[in-house]
């Protein structure tokens, strides 16, 4: 089994994105408050006062700026499928931003999401093969490939958006999933350096955002951040699947277990009740944990531990050497957030 090494670009990209987040997120908070771009409380939401909802702007800016900073530093990660990843992610971010500011009907957003996913499909990010037990690797018919790819991208993007209902939950899950998918990309033979780089940059951007998003949150990521993060995770998992010729292509299912389980039960519950799957409600996993008496922090901690466990299993199966990097990433991320949170508490006092 080959010994894996994280590249300088992965480490530098993560650090740049995190540091940018520490400075850009406060600017977005001030701008949102000045322009009145706030998430207002209602019967479905659990916060009691208006909170800025444009955190996705900071996440997107940090990710893009970090990527271009690496290009300036001569870490140019060229690959043909990179355009689909960046273009699709930016379009999904723009859709979420418009929804955060003006509000869009769920069905209209769904149509636009399908359009964006279709663009990405024709740019080459697509499910082309599947591993069937006792049969082996089969090539998927182009029509099934199209519908399967669209369903996965749109489904995961919305699944991540659905779990963005408790302070720190969606950002934590995206961070853990990004690190896990980045390590899965490195474990490939040959390694997919582009996918791993994008994954680690996204993780760094999310870490910077999370320092302001844990309870009590000073800012929400909004649809712009959740759809952007969900889209990147969905696309990275497809790129991993495209380069895997065996049953390991299903490891992203473990990595994305939290949003997948939540959207699966939410969709089934709504269908059984005879209502549209697109109608928002307060019956997601995090809502149920809160109804059981758990605080926001405890509910988030429980789901984060589960996400870490599933990510660890996936990276261990891919290559046992990735396990140490996964543990390092979890420890370092936790320390960075705790230190920064205490620093901000000190500033407030």
Structure description:
The protein has one domain (about 10-345). The protein has 13 helices and four strands. It has helices spanning about 10-35, 55-70, 80-100, 105-120, 140-160, 170-185, 195-210, 220-240, 250-255, 255-270, 285-290, 295-320, 320-349; strands at about 40, 50, 130, 135-140. The protein has a two-stranded antiparallel ribbon. Strands 3-4 form a two-stranded antiparallel sheet. A hairpin with a 3-residue loop joins β3 (about 130) and β4. α4 (about 105-120) crosses α5 (about 140-160) and α5 (about 140-160) crosses α10. The longest helix has 28 residues, at about 10-35. The chain is globular.
List the helices and strands and how they pair.
Layout: H1 8-35, E1 38-39, E2 51-52, H2 55-72, H3 82-102, H4 106-122, E3 129-132, E4 136-139, H5 142-162, H6 169-187, H7 193-210, H8 222-242, H9 251-255, H10 257-272, H11 285-291, H12 296-318, H13 322-348
Antiparallel strand pairs: 1-2, 3-4
Keywords:
349 residues, mainly alpha, 69% helix, 13 helices, globular, two-stranded antiparallel sheet
Task: Output the structural class.
Answer: mainly alpha
Shape: globular
Largest sheet: 2 strands, antiparallel
Adjacency order of strands in the biggest sheet = 1-2
Proportion of residues in helical segments: 55-70%
Separate helix tally? 13
Q: What is the domain tally? A: 1
Quaternary organisation: single chain
- The whole-number mean of residue pLDDT values reads 87
């Amino acid at each position: 089994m080959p010994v894996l090494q994280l590249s300088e670009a992965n480490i530098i990209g993560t650090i740049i994105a995190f540091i940018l987040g520490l400075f850009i997120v406060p600017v977005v908070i001030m701008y949102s408050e000045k322009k009145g771009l706030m998430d207002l409380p209602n019967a479905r939401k659990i916060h009691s006062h208006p909170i800025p909802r444009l955190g996705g702007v900071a996440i997107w800016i940090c990710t893009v700026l970090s990527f271009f900073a690496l290009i300036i530093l001569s870490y140019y990660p060229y690959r043909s499928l990179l355009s689909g990843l960046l273009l699709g992610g930016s379009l999904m971010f723009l859709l979420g931003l418009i929804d955060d500011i003006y509000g869009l009907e769920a069905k209209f957003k769904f149509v636009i999401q399908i359009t964006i996913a279709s663009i990405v499909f024709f740019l080459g990010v697509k499910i082309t093969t599947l591993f069937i037990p006792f049969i082996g690797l089969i090539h998927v018919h182009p029509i099934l490939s199209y519908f399967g790819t669209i369903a996965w991208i749109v489904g995961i993007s919305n699944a991540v958006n659905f779990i963005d209902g408790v302070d720190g939950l969606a950002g934590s899950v995206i961070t853990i999933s990004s690190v896990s998918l980045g390590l899965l990309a490195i474990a490939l033979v040959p390694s997919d350096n582009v996918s791993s780089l994008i994954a680690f940059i996204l993780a760094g951007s999310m870490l910077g955002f999370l320092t302001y998003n844990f309870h009590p949150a000073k800012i929400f990521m909004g649809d712009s951040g959740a759809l952007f993060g969900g889209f990147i995770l969905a696309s990275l998992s497809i790129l991993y699947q495209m380069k895997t010729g065996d049953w390991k292509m299903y490891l992203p299912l473990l990595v994305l277990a939290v949003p997948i389980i939540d959207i699966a039960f939410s969709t089934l519950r709504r269908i059984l009740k005879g209502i549209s799957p697109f109608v928002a409600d307060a019956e997601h996993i995090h809502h149920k944990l809160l109804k059981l008496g758990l605080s926001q922090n405890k509910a988030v901690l429980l789901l984060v531990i589960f996400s870490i466990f599933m990510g660890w299993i996936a990276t261990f199966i891919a290559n046992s050497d990735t396990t140490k990097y996964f543990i390092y990433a979890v420890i370092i991320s936790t320390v960075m957030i705790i230190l920064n949170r205490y620093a901000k508490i000190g500033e407030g006092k």
